[in-house]
Write a structure and sequence with these properties.
Layout lengths: L21 H12 L4 H9 L2 H11 L6 H10 L15 H12 L4 H12 L9 H9 L1 H14 L2
């Protein structure tokens, strides 16, 4: 999990998902950001022994359900997944794009690198307008997370 932005704070009274260990919450948040559905996430999450132990201790063993997951998603502002071309790239590619944007590399250089490394051509190729849109959305969120991590919050 190295290089990940800091985890959102656990606001208010903790629900089932908010009580999870940081590493599991980080993975859950990433799966939600990647657009995985509850029907995919819930069996994975409820199958983890640390999760089952927390559910036994604090929630009479009741499993995490769609309602709990939706509440967690809303509490952490994950209601709308990014859907642009850059958002659909694999996580590690997006991380490298973010690092290059942070280092002020020109859009043309980043586009050439992504398109060459991902073998993208024609309509599927990343163009400067895609990076511009990402800079104001996904990159801004990533940068906020990096700044929070640096401040230790």
């Amino acid at each position: 999990m190295s290089g990940m932005a800091s985890l959102p704070k656990r606001p208010g009274l903790p629900g089932k998902c908010d009580r999870l260990p940081d590493a599991i919450r980080a993975e859950l948040l990433q799966r939600l950001r990647d657009g995985q559905s509850g029907s995919t996430i819930l069996p994975w999450l409820n199958g983890l022994e640390p999760v089952r132990a927390i559910l036994r201790k604090h929630f009479q063993g009741l499993r995490i359900n769609d309602q709990s997951l939706s509440k967690f998603r809303r509490r952490h502002a994950l209601g709308v997944a990014r859907k642009g071309k850059v958002a659909r790239l694999p996580y590690l590619v997006r991380e490298k794009i973010n690092l290059r944007l942070r280092d002020n590399q020109p859009y043309a250089v980043i586009c050439a690198w992504v398109n060459r490394s991902r073998k993208l051509r024609g309509p599927s190729a990343i163009i400067p307008q895609n990076l511009s849109a990402w800079r104001w959305g996904g990159f801004s969120e990533w940068l906020q997370g990096q700044n929070s991590e640096t401040r230790g919050t």
